[in-house]
């Protein structure tokens, strides 16, 4: 099972949170599943999963959306990693990022959690922070709005027009990270858009 990659899309469960900024990681997982015409199914690790392939004959992908709240994503993520025999360097976490402007994607392996409680909990549960992350920029709120409230708000009208492209690009970033490696994906997605 060395070829298995676990892709974890962070978010909060239930219809109340589906369209919020904090759930953009799960939106990316929905896009990856839709590209493969697959549907999520319940898993005993308190998550919904799709078992699929990057493409025929390539790496196996396990797309996972924890059923837990964001701040306790580590339990489902680590249980799935154990179940599928996936090492931390093949656990890709897709999450929202306040410190990156909206409509921007950054990739990295390891480092701090930047105040993101979902990432913090996964690092604690895996026993290492050395896992790849696809960070989807949501930007910070203007004015004095509390970032904790901002991430739980739905995307604004102007953002919603660009959101499908951002989600598609983030799904592309996940696929390229697995297929061609971190540096190639960074070179493509960190460059300014034309």
What is the total number of structural domains? Answer: 1
First-residue to last-residue Cα separation: 39 Å
CATH topology: Rossmann fold
Number of DSSP helical runs: 6
Tell me which CATH architecture applies here: 3-Layer(aba) Sandwich
Number of E-state strands: 7
Could you write a compact summary of the structure shown?
With 194 residues, the protein is α/β, with parallel strands linked by helices. It has helices spanning 24-35, 74-84, 117-126, 147-150, 157-180, 182-189; strands spanning 4-9, 41-43, 47-53, 60-66, 91-97, 105-109, 132-137.
Describe this structure as you would to a colleague:
- With 194 residues, the chain is of the alpha/beta class.
- It has a single domain, classed as Rossmann fold.
- The chain contains six helices and seven strands.
- A seven-stranded mixed sheet has the order 2-3-4-1-5-7-6, with helices on both faces.
- A hairpin with a 3-residue loop joins strand 2 and strand 3.
- Helix 1 packs across helix 5, helix 2 packs across helix 3 and helix 5 runs antiparallel to helix 6.
- The longest helix is centred in the last third of the chain and has 24 residues.
- It is globular.
- The relative contact order is 0.19.
């Amino acid at each position: 099972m060395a070829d298995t990659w676990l892709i974890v899309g962070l978010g909060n469960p239930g219809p109340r949170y589906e369209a919020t900024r904090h759930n953009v990681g799960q939106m990316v997982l929905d896009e990856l599943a839709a590209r493969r015409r697959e549907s999520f199914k319940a898993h005993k690790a308190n998550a919904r999963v799709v078992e699929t392939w990057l493409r025929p004959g390539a790496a196996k992908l396990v797309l996972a959306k924890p059923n837990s709240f964001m701040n306790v994503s580590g339990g489902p993520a680590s249980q799935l990693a154990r179940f599928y025999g996936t090492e931390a360097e093949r656990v890709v976490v897709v999450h929202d990022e306040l410190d990156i402007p909206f409509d921007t994607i950054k990739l990295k392996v390891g480092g701090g959690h930047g105040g993101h409680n979902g990432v913090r909990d996964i690092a604690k549960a895996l026993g290492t922070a050395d896992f790849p992350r696809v960070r989807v920029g949501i930007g910070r709120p203007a004015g004095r709005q509390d970032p904790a409230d901002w991430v739980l708000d739905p995307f604004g009208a102007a953002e919603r027009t660009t959101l499908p492209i951002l989600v598609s690009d983030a799904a592309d970033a996940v696929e390229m990270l697995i297929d061609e490696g971190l540096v190639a994906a960074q070179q493509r997605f960190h460059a300014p858009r034309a």
